[in-house]
C-alpha cells in the first residue's frame, strides 16, 4: 500500500486500465506471494477507514488462477473512502507509484525488493508481515529505525483495525513518527542509485 502526504492535493494518474489516485497519502502492497486472510483483509480495510487520510492500495484478491479463495472488501468500503482512497485489483506499476511526489509512505510486507524500492524513493515504511522471513526483515528495519511494525497481540499474533490506523498516523503525520520520515530521507542517499529490475505491481 502506498501512503500519500497528509497535506498534499489529490491528483490522478493512469495505471493500465485503472485510474490511480496519487493522492496526498500512502501506498500499500503485500507482494505477489503474500495473501492475507479474509479476516486480516477486513481489519486492514477498516484500519484504512479509521486512518482517514488518502491512500492507494494495490490489492491482489488471489495469488493465481489456482487460488479459489477470492478476498472481498466489505460492502460500502469504496463509498466510505471515496475521494481519498483507491483500490487497484489489477497490475499496478509499483515503481512509478513510489516515485510520485505525493506518496509519502509505504505499507509493505517487508519483502527485500519492495523495501529497497521504497527507500530509493524516500518513502517512510509501515511494516505488516505475514511470513517468517518477512518478520526477520521487519525486525532489522525496526531496530535501525527504518520502519515501524504494526503491533500484533502477543497472545495470538493478530492485529486489529485500531493498530493499523494508529500505526499509519504515527508514521505519516505524528511527531513521534518523524524519525521514520527522516530515516527515509537518509536512506535515499544509500539506495537511490541501485537497480531493482523490472517494475512490480
Structure description:
- The chain has a single domain (2-191), classed as Rossmann fold.
- The protein is globular and about 40 Å long.
- It has helices at residues 38-51, 77-80, 94-99, 112-120, 132-143, 161-172, 178-191; strands at 2-4, 12-15, 18-21, 25-29, 55-58, 85-88, 103-108, 124-127, 148-149.
- It is 35% helix and 18% strand.
- By secondary structure, it is an alpha/beta fold.
- The longest helix is centred in the first third of the chain and has 14 residues, at 38-51.
Principal-axis shape: globular
Provide the CATH architecture: 3-Layer(aba) Sandwich
Q: Report strand %.
A: 15-25%
* CATH fold call: Rossmann fold
Percentage of residues assigned to helices: 25-40%
Q: Can you identify the CATH superfamily?
A: Glycogen Phosphorylase B
Structural class: alpha/beta
Q: Sketch the topology as an H/E string, one letter per element.
A: EEEEHEHEHEHEHEHH
Straight-line distance between termini: 10 Å
Look at the structure and give the CATH class.
Alpha Beta
* Radius of gyration of CA atoms, rounded to a whole number: 15 Å
Query: What's the β-strand tally?
Result: 9
Oligomer: single chain
Number of domains: 1
How many strands, what sense, and barrel or not for the largest sheet? 7 strands, mixed
| H/I helix tally | 7
Mean of all residue-level pLDDT scores: 81
Unreliable runs: 5-24, 196-201
Amino acid at each position: 500500500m502506498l501512503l500519500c502526504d497528509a497535506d498534499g492535493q489529490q491528483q490522478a494518474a493512469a495505471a493500465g486500465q485503472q485510474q490511480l489516485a496519487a493522492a496526498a497519502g500512502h501506498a500499500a502492497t503485500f507482494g505477489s506471494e503474500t495473501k492475507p486472510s479474509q479476516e486480516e483483509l477486513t481489519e486492514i480495510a477498516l484500519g484504512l477507514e479509521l486512518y482517514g487520510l488518502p491512500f492507494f492500495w494495490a490489492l491482489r484478491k488471489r495469488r493465481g488462477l489456482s487460488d479459489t479463495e477470492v478476498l472481498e472488501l466489505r460492502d460500502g468500503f469504496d463509498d466510505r473512502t471515496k475521494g481519498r482512497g483507491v483500490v487497484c485489483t489489477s497490475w499496478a506499476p509499483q515503481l512509478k507509484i513510489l516515485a510520485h511526489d505525493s506518496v509519502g509512505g509505504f505499507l509493505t510486507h517487508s519483502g527485500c525488493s519492495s523495501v529497497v524500492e521504497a527507500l530509493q524513493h524516500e518513502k517512510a515504511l509501515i511494516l505488516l508481515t505475514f511470513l517468517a522471513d518477512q518478520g526477520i526483515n521487519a525486525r532489522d528495519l525496526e531496530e535501525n529505525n527504518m520502519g515501524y511494525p504494526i503491533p500484533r497481540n502477543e497472545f495470538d499474533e493478530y492485529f486489529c483495525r485500531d493498530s493499523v490506523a494508529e500505526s499509519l498516523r504515527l508514521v505519516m503525520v505524528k511527531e513521534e513518527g518523524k524519525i521514520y520520515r527522516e530515516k527515509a530521507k537518509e536512506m535515499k542517499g544509500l539506495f537511490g542509485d541501485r537497480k531493482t529490475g523490472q517494475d512490480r505491481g
